[in-house]
Amino acid sequence: MPVDASAYVAPTAIVHPEAQIGPHCRVGEYCVVEQDVVLGAGCVLEPYVYIKRWTSIGERNEISAGTVLGTDPLDKNFSGARSYLRIGSGNRIREHYTISRGTLPESATVLGDDNYIMTAGHIAHNCVIGSGTVIASCALVAGYVEIEDQAFVSGVIGIHQFTKIGRLAMIAGGVRVNMDAPPYFLYGGLYITPNGLNRVGLRRAGFTRADTEPLKTAYQLLYRSNLKQEEALRRIETEIPNEHTLHLVQFVRRSKRGICRE
Length: 262
What we know:
- This protein folds into two domains: about 10-195, UDP N-Acetylglucosamine Acyltransferase, domain 1; about 205-255, Up-down Bundle (Udp N-acetylglucosamine O-acyltransferase, Domain 2), CATH 1.20.1180.
- About 15% of the residues lie in helices and about 25% in strands.
- By secondary structure, the protein is an alpha/beta fold.
- The strands form three sheets. The chain has an eleven-stranded mixed β-sheet.
- The mean pLDDT is about 95.
């Protein structure tokens, strides 16, 4: 059952017989869907969307015109072997966007659920994007980048390969993201610089004052106390331990590139 009986495929669209198109999907004019593609229920492809081989997409995704999903990696080491792009459910990917599959054989680029990805940007090979993120227009996300849930990446940003952006971090427009950005904080500057709590994002995510006060103290210890990093982390986890501060500590300790500094 490659194309479900309830799905609509425009007369000018080209859908490979081995592609799977789920219930109530709409495939617009001049779309191309290659073999080994899985499109979950209720997805909408606007005209001129191109979904390449070994891409799987969950339910209720809206893909806008001119977007290409599952492109070959922009990586000289790519051998042409099978790799994957896996996208969850409820995502909106707007016009003229590209997302690559993994570089190494059987590796994957992964997007979670309910992300809003705006126009004219790129997510490169082997990235891991969480759920509920916003990636604004003209953001360029290099290979092996990780972006945790509910982060907000503003427009005209370049994110260096292997960089990590934490949960509910907010990156201002035009920033060069070349160091890891711990969760819950606000970042600006030409080169990424921490600027306190992401108060608006935290409030919108339902954080109470009881949630944010320990994070405020954690920011002071990490960035304003003149303590060495590991000593600051020890004080955070012993003096103000909770779900969010401990996640912050774990994020910083896992950082391989190093976190950005004031």
